[in-house]
Amino acid sequence: MTAPQHPPPFPPAEPSPVPGPGRPHRHDSGEGHGSGDGRAHGPGGGHGHSHSHGPAAPVSRHLRRLIAAVLVPFTAAVVVGLAVLWPDGLPTHPRSGVGFDRQTQQATVTTVTDMPCASANTAPGTDPASGSGGTSTTEGAPTRQQAGDCKKATIRVDTGTGKGRTFTEIVRPDQSRQLHQGEKVVVAYEPSAPRDLQYSVTDVNRSFPMALLAGIFAVAVVVVGRMRGVMALIALTVSFLILSLFILPAILQGSNPLLVAVIGASAIMLIALYLCHGLSARTSVAVLGTLISLSLIGVLGSLFMGWAALTGNTDDNTGLIHGLYPHIDMSGLLLAGVIIGSLGVLDDVTVTQTSAVWELHEANPSMGWRGLYRAGIRIGRDHIASVVNTLVLAYAGAALPLLLLFSIAQSSVTTVATSELVAEEVVRTLVGSIGLVASVPVTTALAALVVSADRPAVTAAAPAPARGGKRRRRKR
């Protein structure tokens, strides 16, 4: 009579992609502990649980060298480009006094009193420079006599050479911006104007609510993201510094806007991705996917903006820039904006797809690159639907007043869509969306190829097998 057979305490291990009888208990920073299947520490099983503390990264030298062979020259080219095109600072020019190109000071509304609107144009002490003979704080407001009560606001200048001076503004009841006592405002200052007309209210001072909102955002990011959130905020600060210290001054200095945008966006991409996600093969694959997608966006944008004859000079702000700096290529500036605007969403897509493929490989190490690609692309399709819709709605929301204006004019859909104002946004949206869609299969394929081709080196001395390990190993 034979003794009853008891099943082993653990199921037989699945075939591991790693050759040899087993793998030792590893403590590498970029890789989880245990064998490829994550079940045992040795060939026999030991205790059956995994010790993965984070994302696993390929450790084989040939893959590290392959990725470095692409990214190291690219990074070097970005550094050289930054050094060559780095501007000396913002170029100076005589102020035009139009739009944002004028001197401004901080001020406070000290008193607000009621007065008949009928006497607003002849009231003593009013300021005609505010628009319509001193009867409006809204620039460009129409001049008309109006029944009812207006408000006469006295404003005290708080900064600049005229600190302590006061002037008055007449606020009509139909104006969108009403002044209130104690309110902080921004005033335009024109030193060449007559003394009584040198100051006029242009905006309200919203520094405190903006700073408070930014603080809430930073706290939320750190509380939810913890250390990753801190790194994300640092990367955001670096991105802003590159934008304000390199991209904008270099364009104003006369450098090619497209070249400056490509180099600046590449620097932002490298710093933000590696700072937030670590220096690993996973992040490097995301960088490669982002780089390929950005290149596609640049090529498509250049082709269709030239084909559609988009000048990039469509509103007062771009007209002012062209007037002050006629050497700036406005169509190149438009394309530069498309590239920089697409970068943030591209980072999200490429990092998500790379992480998805890595986790699929961790769950099933025996899956080949085709299986990883098919599984990853299924995840990517859901991502594509949501991201493209988000991008289109974001552009539509920004252009909503313009679209409303065309609706009021009762223009046809074709006329609206092909007008340069709207065509810019349409081309910007579609080019960016094509780049986003392309980034999913590109990044997924790169990640699947890299993670499935990884073959870590086998250690010279195999660890001592656990009890019964050899017998179970021979049965596989």
TrEMBL record:
Low complexity compositional bias, start-end: 123-143
Composition-biased stretches (Basic and acidic residues): 27-40
Transmembrane spans: 66-86, 207-225, 232-252, 258-276, 288-310, 330-346, 384-409, 429-451
InterPro entries, sorted: YibE_F (IPR012507)
Protein name: YibE/F family protein
Keyword annotations from UniProtKB, A to Z: Membrane, Transmembrane, Transmembrane helix
Annotated segments matching region Disordered: 1-58, 116-152
